[in-house]
Specification:
alpha/beta; about 30% helix; methyltransferase activity; transferase; SAM-dependent_MTases_sf; about 200 residues; Rossmann fold; seven-stranded mixed beta sheet; methyltransferase; 7 helices
Length: about 200
């Protein structure tokens, strides 16, 4: 099995450890502020790769938004359902995303980059089909094209990225305009962040 295909099992086996060590100090908050700035009150947000619901979904719920979360790990979705029972949680693979509805915002924070480059390319039409007109999309990537193998709980952890120019092309092709792109944002733990809006 490839490192990329091992991701679902990795997050299922180590859900408790992931929830325990996942940073919850809110360093992502400035980017979430930008994500929600154009949203109407009580907007619907799709959190792709929502993990245990903390801190991203928790922050959005605290602002009064309704969150639909998707994660490949059943144990992590179970935690979401326990913590935020008034919201909509799904076990599933983002590569098969097909919810049949649109959202005012979509976020894929530190999840999208676990897909292979080929799988990432196929996600942009899925983002577009789930984004309302004027809806915003935020995701994290690597700073440049390549594959990096990290480590989590003693197991290989796959990450991949396309070139920034290709992300811009794919976004434009799917009807998104880039609002902001910061490479290795020092104010956000070194995350490379994209924020785009559906035209």
């Amino acid at each position: 099995m490839s490192h990329a295909n091992a991701i679902p099992g990795l997050y299922a086996r180590h859900a408790e450890a992931f929830d325990r060590i996942r940073g919850k100090n809110g360093f992502e908050r400035p980017w979430l502020d930008r994500l929600v700035a154009p949203l109407p009150e009580h907007a619907h947000v799709l959190d792709i790769g929502c993990g245990s619901g903390e801190p991203i979904a928790a922050d959005l719920i605290g602002r009064g938004f309704f969150v639909t979360g998707l994660d490949v790990s059943e144990p992590l979705i179970r935690l979401c359902r326990e913590r935020f029972p008034g919201h909509d949680w799904h076990v599933g693979d983002m590569r098969d995303l097909s919810l049949g509805r649109t959202f005012e915002a979509i976020v894929a924070w530190h999840s999208f980059f676990h897909l292979t480059p080929e799988a990432q390319r196929t996600m942009f039409p899925r983002f577009a089909s789930h984004a309302a007109r004027g809806g915003v999309l935020m995701f994290t990537s690597g700073p440049s094209a390549g594959v990096a193998i990290g480590e989590f709980e003693g197991e290989p952890l796959y990450h991949a990225s396309l070139d920034p120019a290709e992300y811009r092309f794919l976004l434009a092709e799917s009807g998104f305009v880039v609002l902001q792109h910061v490479v290795e944002d020092p104010a956000c733990g070194g995350a490379t962040v994209w924020l785009a809006q559906k035209t």
